[in-house]
Amino acid sequence: MATQARSIASLTVSFGLVAIPVKLYSATVSSERLSFNLLRQKDGSRVKQQYVAVNDGKIVERSDMVKGYEFAKDQYVMFSPEELKALEDATSHSIDIGQFVPLESVDPLYFDGTYYLAPDKGAAKPYTLLATALRKAKQCAVGRWISRGKEHIVVIRPLEDGLAMHQLHFKAEVRDLKDLGIEPAAVSEPELKLAQQLIDHLAAKRFDPNEYADEHRARVQAAIQKKVEGKEVSMAEAPVTIKGGGNVINLMDALRASIDARGSRPAGLKERKAPKRAAAQSASRKSARR
Q1: Which of 46, 117, 129, 265 is the most buried (most CB within 10 A)?
Q2: Which of 190, 198, 196, 197 has the alpha carbon at shortest distance from 264?
Q3: pLDDT of 55 strictly over 50
């Protein structure tokens, strides 16, 4: 039985002279994540974490701790809780929209947290108006929001039945791909054609999350249930990990084998019909062989 979603904040979305009271909800369900506790092996007793001073190895209580910033190797400037509080931005209950942009212009690299926005009491009409207008204009709203002393860039986009808000990273928080030093490699036209055929073979009109199941979670849950029932968990039940070897296979052979293995699919992906273009190409190849 699904639990009733609880609002985590009351906010106001503002653009121009329009103010829309909304309720903020988390879009993800943390209870769906499996977590383990640390125990002492001999008797299963829970263990707790303690902080130890590096200088003398003595345990430090939380009441004796302050935060510090390392400005040089092993050199810190300390800040009291009061000093840090004074540096924080005051939490804002308003999301101030500054501009509207096409959603595709926002690189997913910048996406951080995801939330739902629902209309507060008496705000159904302006809420629906904003969602409908964004949908028709094919735009999303970009604004600023201050939460827990930190400023965030947010994007508000229309869903089929409401609005979603994505918290974004700032530019300085996203590493530049150039830092990885990726060297370009030459790709031949035949290799590109085979790769395109493989893409066509696995292509779908849109991403459907229902086609993907969390197989790892299912395996862990099954193992937990066996433990609860006092049964042994066989190591043979664990998935086989394929490690990369030193041999480099021929790229063309790998692409052809991938296309020929029509029954194979990525883990968790359901069977789907091949696109018309891929089917036509396959039929043409078969006729040529005859």
Answers
A1: 117
A2: 198
A3: yes
Contact 211, 231 (CB under 8 A): no
- The residue assigned the tokens 């995801």 is 114
Q: What is the dihedral of CA 25, 26, 32, 33, to 10 degrees?
A: -150
- Whether the pLDDT of residue 275 is over 80: the answer is no
The string of pLDDT tens digits covering residues 238-263 is 555 545 444 445 777 887 887 787 55
Strands 75-79 and 67-72 turn out to be antiparallel
Q: How far apart, in Å, are the Cα atoms of 103 and each of 16, 72, 126, 158, 161?
A: 20, 42, 21, 10, 17
Enter the tokens of residue 210.
């229902």
CB 177 within 8 A of CB 237: no
Hey, how many other C-beta atoms are within 10 angstroms of the C-beta on 140?
24
Q: How far apart are CA 251 and CA 74, in angstroms?
A: 50
Is the pTM of the predicted complex or chain greater than 0.85?
no
Q: Are 202 and 278 in contact (CB under 8 A)?
A: no
Whole-number pLDDT of residue 120: 95
